[in-house]
Design brief:
This protein is α+β, with helices and mostly antiparallel strands and about 650 residues long. About 35% of the residues lie in helices and about 15% in strands. The protein contains 19 helices and 20 strands. Strands 1, 2, 6, 7, 8, 9, 12, 15, 16, 17 and 18 form an eleven-stranded mixed beta sheet that branches. It has a three-stranded antiparallel beta sheet with strand order 3-4-5, with helices on one face. The chain has a two-stranded antiparallel sheet with strand order 10-11. This is Kinesin-like protein. Pfam families: HHH_3, Kinesin.
Length: about 650
Amino acid sequence: MDKRSTQTKVKVVVRLRPCLSTSEKTFVSVVGNKVQILNHRNIEENLQYEFNTVFDENSSQAEVFSTSVEPMLEKVLQGQNVSVFAYGPTGAGKTHTMLGMTSDPGIIPRVIQSLFEAIEEKQASALNGNSNQAPQFKVTFSYMEIYNEKVHDLLVSGHQDLPIREDASKNIFVADLSEKSIDKYETFMNHFEPAASNRTVAATKLNKYSSRSHTILLLKILRREPDGKEMRGKLYLIDLAGSEDNRRTGNKGIRLKESGAINKSLFVLGEVVDAINQNQPRIPYRNSKLTRLLQDSIGGGCHAVMITNIAPEERFYYDTYCTLNFATKSKKIVNTITTHVVRPPQIEKPTATVRPIKRHSGSLPPSKPKLRKLSSSLPSLSAADPHSASCVSAAVSNDPLPSPLVRQQKAFESAIQEKLSAMEKLVENLRSTTNMKDLTASESNSPNSANKESSTPTSNKTRKSLRLSLVSVQSDDSPDVIFPTPKACKGKLTDATNLLKQRHFGPPQQKVKKQKVQYRVVEDSTSCSPLFPQSPAISRKRGSSQDFESPTTKKIKAAPHIFNNEDQAKRNTEFLELLNSASVKELQGLQTVGVKRAKMIYEWRELHGSFSSIHGLLDVPGFSDKVLKKLLRSNLVTNI
């Protein structure tokens, strides 16, 4: 991937909202690209701020789009990233600037329509020119919100608290975020309109439809040229929630928690801007989900356009003053723009190279003698045979000294060889002694012997008992050697030769078939631990299909239903009545309902009225399908 980098500053645009009431006093004036407000420290003076572009209260949506955003669309089609976000206090008109209305659309609808028009123009110009093929484009989009420091997917319900990741190329992305492919403006609106209705909006004293979250619309454009070259660009359209003064908004309960999360994220955004302007070694992007997603927009690698919205009324003086100061700091930030171009791999044809033959004018130089390797067929060193060791040392005297690991291996092999030779000598001696002993015993046990009947049973019994007490241990070196168990040592053997014979050889053992293990049920068995109840031992013959169950298992299987149909219906009705009439303290008495959820249910009921069904709890913020199922199961209510 080719990356060509250029540097550019963040483009800051200011838009002044019209005054909502003619009776209120204003304190903001626009002169060209400058904004003037009263100086609260000296009434006789004015504070003046200068920006790239300033739109007064008479500016239209089309004017803001054509001047600030439309020139950036060509950069996205060339493989660069662009970020456009609206910033300002609550009630300053950020959402109106980004979304607009059906009769007067905002930046987001105009961007989509202009983007597809630009794609059609490029394809038409390529076909009308000398090229026979037009570039291909693929456009996908994602839509998400940051609500109470949690990322929610607005295209798919149920995707909540998604993690933010960073890939190997330092690109920020949201894991498991859904994408929709679009090919025209109508397809986009079919997906976007229901997703926009999922955004969290609530009423406050300053605004009837106040945004309670930050929303980010991400567009990915892939451009593939006929020669195989690809250019990938991204377009971020961000609608930030406004900072709020809870003393004027009158926020309580859930609204107070939402405003706290919004103000915290905007405060961290200010810290990020200050850290970038002061060239600090650490930029606190990770202190908030918002700044983590804006890491590429502020001090990152994309073109950034910040549309600052302000209000002209005197009651918004402090908010407007802080907003203009923040916009002044932001226009100093420099971003390093990166163009993402992927070129097709070029296959090089192999070429045959002929090396010239070097010829020496004189005689050839003498070659170095090669060192001989140690032969693996040399006899192993043995301490018992010093002559062989001396021969081996003499044979390798001309070779280089082996490494320490080779010497340790040789020493280990010599020790093993010594033990094997000693065992072979012992085995030969035992075999000769055993043969002589068996020959003497066969001569003594002749048919004319008087003690034939008495001696034979005794020797057979002794051999049989000794054979049963032995355990055969097979080894690679001595597969026929049999070692006795400790029980064999307790037996009294009068003949030391037979004992030695049984230890090393013994009678040839036959393969003993494994006996079938049969278990029996012990009814009066007691438990080994007082923590576990008594249960009969499980017995089963091998091959039988009979299963045994403990009394506890049978009791669980035979447990009847807790409620019948009438009782369950009554329980469901009582639960729904409790949701519609109970106080916060009474709602806390329900299982899995704490103080926060009880307040959320109560406030939702006060704003929207009673619940028509139990599924109405899904409309309460913080209640998902998983939470609702757990609540109903814990309170013995069926999912109706």
